[in-house]
Design brief:
heterodimer; A: mainly alpha; ABC transporter involved in vitamin B12 uptake, BtuC; 82% helix; B: alpha/beta; Rossmann fold; six-stranded mixed beta sheet; four-stranded antiparallel beta sheet; 7 helices; 33% helix; binds adenosine-5'-diphosphate; binds magnesium ion
């Protein structure tokens, strides 16, 4: 899509992939971080990881398996919390442990069989060897995320404010909540081999945290978070190619650095110190 | 015709929390009509909050018949909640909650609007009216999490007034309010009752009740132990006596 702008095809695809991944994850991050559900992102990424290893073990499409498995785990979160009478966080912990166990079991077993599975792209990400289809899928999922937020903006705000009060007002928050979980699962699974299972957390949490340093309301956070993520990741990909550095970890470091800078420059901090 | 029916009709209901077998509310029957001022009293953990949440369907009714505002609560919980205001008992909004008073009051309209609908002129007007009624115009642009407990309580009341409910449930709404704020809120509630909107209030503070007939319901261990109409000044005595007997 950016071919006219960037001559090198590999660089071009890498920029596109990273930018779309950033948009989807950072928008979802704004919702996730407000709902005290940071562990959702964590669990989903490991579910995708487990799914991918199942796919490799069965010699299927790893990406499809990752999507199927993380969507499946997403669908379990609500019912398990209800039936087992646990906090959503504890449920996520249990599911997270399950996913890790499945993934490690299969990876170890395949090594034992001599199948030699390379898990490194799943763990650390790889923006060099991407298929065109993957980039289209990422573009589609970031578009889907944007449409989701635009369509259900009022429900999302209410959920971010207080789930109980949103339910009491007669909104169909459960439906929106399940769609949200589904989109998170989808995005995380698609981003898995771009940013890596270990780093995806940075994309989900850090841009939203950066935005929250400057923004006082939700609307501006939904704009600022993806904007920051987009700029930083595009710059990171360029710098990674220019200086031959590993790209996903570099972008993760840059995002975290930006967060540090944001905390220092935070307008909120200035406002509060002035008030006292 | 609807006017002749009770707005809340509970008949032999049992309610249990998700995942629990043991019911909290047991075989409870209660009728509430338009224009009634209902006070629910009783000791801690009697099931007062659970009763309110059974009325609007937030807690699952496992047995019995429940009709509220003409809807079957067990089947059409959403429709009930669109028409029933509910000021929850314990809420806490952290200082970083990214919504201001005006936005929170506006959210009271969201349920009525339904999925995919945007607020229109009428909704903004209703929110504005609610803010004026509760007298929190000066807080409209303040972040909700930075307000005091009493101010947040007022915002939540305005949130429910903006909804223009057919019934208003309030769970210990006075706990954070000072004397003058209580009087102010009681006056608002009295206006609602006079306009025909019944209110159901869980409270331990009986001194500021308006001087009208009160429908008093006393609960204990998930059952109603007293269900009478009495003058406001008799409420405190009756609640105390029926609590002593247990
Ligand atoms: N979410 C819940 N899950 C399970 N049990 C609950 C829940 N909330 C309340 N209960 C139980 O229901 C009973 C009644 O509680 P509640 O309705 O809050 O009493 P009240 O409002 O009269 O103080 C208590 O025994 C309490 O332990
Ligand atoms: Mg209570």
């Amino acid at each position: 899509m950016l071919e006219p702008l960037i001559a090198n095809n590999v660089v071009c695809h890498a920029v596109e992939a990273m930018v779309f991944a950033s948009i989807a994850c950072s928008i979802l991050g704004v919702v996730i971080s407000r709902m005290n559900l940071a562990s959702i992102g964590f669990t989903m990424s490991h579910a995708a990881f487990a799914g991918a290893s199942i796919g490799m073990f069965l010699e299927m499409n790893a990406q499809m398996a990752a999507i199927a498995f993380s969507v499946g785990v997403a669908a379990l979160i609500g019912p398990i919390s209800d039936k087992a009478k646990m906090a959503a966080d504890a449920t996520l912990g249990v599911l997270f442990a399950l996913c890790m166990a499945v993934a490690i079991f299969l990876i170890s077993y395949m090594q034992y069989l001599g199948k030699g599975l390379s898990a490194s792209s799943l763990l650390f990400g790889d923006v060099i060897s991407l298929y065109r289809e993957e980039i289209y899928a990422l573009a589609a999922v970031s578009l889907l995320t944007i449409i989701f937020v635009l369509l259900f903006y009022k429900e999302i705000c209410a959920i971010m404010f207080n789930m109980k009060i949103a339910q009491a007002s007669g909104m169909r928050v459960q439906v929106v909540y399940y769609i949200l979980l589904f989109i998170i699962a989808l995005s995380v699974a698609l981003c898995l081999n771009i940013v890596g299972g270990l780093l995806i957390f940075v994309w989900l949490v850090t841009p939203a945290s950066i935005a929250s340093q400057f923004c006082f309301d939700v609307k501006s956070m939904f704009i600022a978070a993806p904007l920051v993520a987009l700029l930083v990741s595009a710059f990171g990909v360029w710098a990674g190619f220019e200086y031959t550095l590993p790209i996903a970890p570099l972008v993760a470091l840059l995002l975290t650095g930006t967060f540090g800078l944001a905390v220092m420059l935070s307008t909120k901090r200035k406002v509060t110190t002035r008030r006292h | 015709m609807l006017w002749e029916l009770s707005i809340i009709e509970l008949e032999g209901i049992y309610t249990a929390y998700e995942g629990d077998d043991k019911p909290i509310i047991k075989d409870l029957t209660l009728n509430i009509d338009r224009g009634e001022y209902v006070v629910i009293g009783g000791p801690n953990s009697a099931g007062k909050t659970t009763l309110l949440e059974s009325i609007n369907g937030l807690v699952k009714i496992t047995h019995g018949r429940a009709a509220v505002c003409g809807f079957d609560v067990r089947r059409s919980g959403h429709d009930v909640r669109k028409k029933v205001g509910y000021v929850v008992q314990n809420f806490y909004f952290d200082p970083f909650t990214p919504f201001n008073t005006q936005q929170v009051v506006m959210m009271g309209r969201y349920g009525r609007l339904g999925l995919l609908k945007r607020p229109i002129e009428e909704d903004y007007k209703a929110a504005e009216r609610a803010i004026r009624m509760v007298g929190i115009e000066d807080l409209a642009q303040k972040t909700i999490g930075t307000l005091s407990g009493g101010q947040q309580q007022k915002v939540m009341i305005a949130h429910n007034l903006a909804k223009e409910p057919e019934v208003l449930l309030l769970d210990e709404p006075f706990s954070n309010l000072d004397f003058s704020a209580r009087e102010f809120l009681q006056a608002i509630l009295l206006d609602l009752v006079k306009g025909g909107t019944p209110i159901v209030i869980v409270s331990h503070a009986f001194d500021g009740l308006p001087d009208i007939r009160i429908h008093l319901v006393v609960m204990n261990e998930g059952r109603i132990t007293k269900d009478i109409c009495c003058p406001a000044r008799a409420v405190e005595d009756i609640v105390r006596k029926s609590s002593l007997r247990q």
